[in-house]
């Protein structure tokens, strides 16, 4: 868990949401698959107001099947199709 604000380094952090331990995943797991968990808690810095996660997450454990190019290009294609 972080002890300092990521922006101003203040130690004046207040918990605002605690969802407990949550699985590292963005998809449905197979029945036999073991998915690691991590604490998902939001803190707000009373000094600068930044809302931030209390823990750092390991990016290699996160399952992400989102194709980020589709997030950028699909709205553009939709806008082009609406004009024609
Ligand atoms: Zn701060």
What does this structure look like?
This protein has one helix and three strands, in the order E-E-E-H. The protein is α+β, with helices and mostly antiparallel strands and 84 residues long. Strand 2 and strand 3 form a beta hairpin. The longest helix has 16 residues. The chain has a three-stranded antiparallel sheet with strand order 1-2-3, with no helix packed on it. It is flat, with a radius of gyration of 18 Å. The chain has one domain. Zinc ion binds next to loops.
Identify the notable features of this structure and list them briefly.
binds zinc ion; 19% helix; alpha+beta; flat; 84 residues; 1 helix; 3 strands
Summarize model confidence as the mean pLDDT.
Answer: 80
What is the CA–CA distance across the termini?
52 Å
Structure class = alpha+beta
Residue share in helices?
10-25%
E-strand count: 3
Counted by DSSP, the helix tally is: 1
Low-confidence stretches: none
* Overall outline: flat
Strand portion: 25-35%
SSE string: EEEH
How are the strands of the largest sheet arranged? 1-2-3
Radius of gyration from the CA trace?
18 Å
Largest sheet: 3 strands, antiparallel
Number of domains: 1
Bound molecules: zinc ion
Structure summary:
The chain has 84 residues and is α+β, with helices and mostly antiparallel strands.
Secondary structure blueprint with pairings:
Blueprint: E1 13-23, E2 37-45, E3 51-53, H1 68-83
Antiparallel strand pairs: 1-2, 2-3
Zinc ion (ZN) binds at residues 5, 7-8, 10, 45, 47-48, 50.
């Amino acid at each position: 868990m972080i002890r300092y604000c990521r922006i101003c380094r203040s130690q004046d952090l207040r918990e605002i949401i605690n969802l407990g331990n949550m699985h590292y995943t963005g998809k449905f797991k197979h029945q036999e698959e073991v998915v690691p968990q991590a604490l998902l808690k939001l803190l707000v810095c009373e000094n600068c107001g930044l809302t931030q996660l209390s823990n750092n997450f390991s990016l290699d454990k996160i399952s992400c099947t989102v194709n980020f190019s589709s997030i950028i290009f699909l709205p553009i294609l939709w806008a082009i199709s609406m004009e024609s």
